[in-house]
Structures are given as C-alpha cells and as structure tokens.
Design goal:
globular, single chain, 2 domains, mainly alpha
C-alpha cells in the first residue's frame, strides 16, 4: 500500500478478511489500531529493525523548522529522563519495553 492512511486501510482490510498481513511501522500501527478499536483483535506477527526507520521531519520552507525540531528533541529528552515517556507510549498502545 502507499499514499495517505495506509495503516487505517490495512486495518480495515484485515477486518474484512481481504488481507492476512501488512507491513507497517510499529508505533504507527499500534496507535492507529488502538484508535480504530481493533488493537486487541490484531496479532503483531513480528518486529524488525532492518526494514525501515521512522523519522520526523520539518519543512525547510517553514522559518520555524529549526526551533520546532529543537523543541521536539528537548521534550523527548525530558520525557525520557523523567520516565514519563513510558506513560505516553503506553497510553497510545505502545509497549515501552519494545522501544529502542
């Protein structure tokens, strides 16, 4: 699949028994499947660190891009050091023990 909303489309295709599996970034998949209310009915078949990496990017056309990137970096560092990141991950359906 490609384009917008691939995780949601994959989840709907799974529900309709039109596919049996699809490849998606772990965090995106867990978040979307939880929002769809089907995370408990989908089995995660496996994990890979070799397939692809998820990145956050900011448009170079946005004059605040560097500032936004720094805010994100600082916030993630603060969440990790305070232990609050695990709470954020858990509340979004992501098992903190399976995160890098």
């Amino acid at each position: 699949m490609h384009g917008e909303g691939t995780t949601n489309r994959g989840g709907r295709l799974l529900q309709a028994n039109r596919i049996t599996t699809f490849l998606e970034g772990e965090y995106s998949a867990m978040y979307e499947l939880k929002n769809m209310g089907i995370s408990e009915s989908v089995v995660i078949a496996g994990y890979t660190t070799e397939g692809f990496h998820d990145y956050t990017g900011f448009s170079s056309h946005n004059p605040n891009a560097t500032q936004y990137a720094q805010i994100l970096s600082d916030t993630l560092t603060e969440l990790k050091s305070s232990g609050r990141l695990d709470d954020v991950l858990s509340s979004n359906g992501i098992n903190p023990e399976q995160t890098p």
